[in-house]
Amino acid sequence: MVLNTIHQGSLDTTRIRADFPILSRQVKPGVPLVYLDNAATSQKPFAVIEAMDDFYRQYNSNIHRGIHTIAEEATAKYEEARGRIAEFIGAPSPKQIIFTRNATESINLVAFSWGRANLYPGDLIILTEMEHHSNLVPWQILASERDLRLEFIPVTPDGLLDLEVFEELLELKPRLVGFTHMSNVLGTINPAKGIIRLAHQAGALTVVDGAQSVPHLPVNVQDLDTDFLAFSGHKMCGPSGIGVLYGRKEFLESMPPFLGGGDMIKRVELRSFVTNEIPYKFEAGTPAIAEAIGLGSAVKYLDSIGMEKILNHEHEIASYALERLEEVPGVSVFGPEADRKGAIFSFSMKGIHPHDISQILDGEGIAIRAGHHCAMPLHEKFNLPATARASFYLYNTREEVDHLVKSLYSVLEIFGL
Ligand code: C6P
Hints:
Blueprint: H1 13-18, E1 26-28, E2 31-32, E3 34-35, H2 46-59, H3 69-88, E4 97-100, H4 103-118, E5 124-128, H5 137-146, E6 149-153, H6 163-170, E7 176-180, H7 192-201, E8 205-209, H8 221-224, E9 228-232, E10 243-247, H9 249-254, E11 265-268, E12 273-275, H10 289-305, H11 307-325, E13 331-334, E14 344-349, H12 354-363, E15 366-367, E16 369-371, H13 376-381, E17 387-391, H14 398-414
Parallel strand pairs: 3-15, 5-6, 5-7, 7-8, 8-9
Antiparallel strand pairs: 1-2, 4-10, 9-10, 11-12, 13-14, 14-17, 16-17
The chain binds ligand C6P.
């Protein structure tokens, strides 16, 4: 199998693969890495690795504090990254881009700050049954503290949100609607714009979990008209340890701080403080500077390829993968048809535990994830303790789909099925 010489539809995957050093490694001698665990985290191109390396070699310093040359360079690069990320998601201003550690922290920030300041006993939050734990647990914590009600948009057997039930739930006048733009288990791309419009008409605020959508499709917060959007750098070619919360300006300005400390204040006295302006109000302490710069570089890289092209490429891969996976005896793929989803495939094989599938595929150099993918309620809904999951990105090829399918036949053989 020659993975590095394939031209793939609208994307030149040969060129793209050459940008990612890890993709040319062998897992063991003669066994190239086939990385299909992109929903967990993506690989990093040279551009990102080099931007972070350059920070540490050339201008490592703290930001917003020193007035020496390299501190000013570091501050400028950190803020340049913020500006690029704002443009990438169509935010009206870089001030609306808050750097956090990850999507999880971004959602917790909204729950902790906006939620505690604005929600009262009996208030209703609507979530969905397909949420990652990161968009469930923060609201559960808040609900138990504040005596709030939680309701859930059900998932249909074919892996879509039941929007009729959503419209019924809206009659209960929720204060907040939180949902994932793309499911990390089913791959379902939810109709975010419509959900947000309906939520707003009912008087609710919206929190979109963009952890799986922002890396894979064009997302524009003004077009979506969402109040908040959360995502992680590490799933979009950037480093781990950096995430983003986008928020509507008037909400961010009126929300109380999340964490207290340096940089989030204008003035401090022994018994009181005055908060800084946004975004700094929400960035207490020395932030992940190299990581923010790395994420800025990742966004530049993705932009240079084009999110529309990435989406098309993944759609091609998703259609092909779905067709090929369904031909393997005993394989059940969960989620909607290819044109309603991204390139994420959770599946089971009759009589074989997902961990065994993953282990056997690993022997073939194929990295997938097995487990509940931090979405236990969704797995329970489908009566599954766990699934195997293959997830693709801009550098994956049809040949890798073929390799996956061939290896699944080997799994059947090993189990004598
Ligand atoms: N899902 C997966 O393998 P963090 O961990 O904060 O970067 O991202 C959390 C998160 C939130 N929402 C969705 C839809 C996600 O998929 C994830 C991360 C990974 O599916 C790791 S559990």
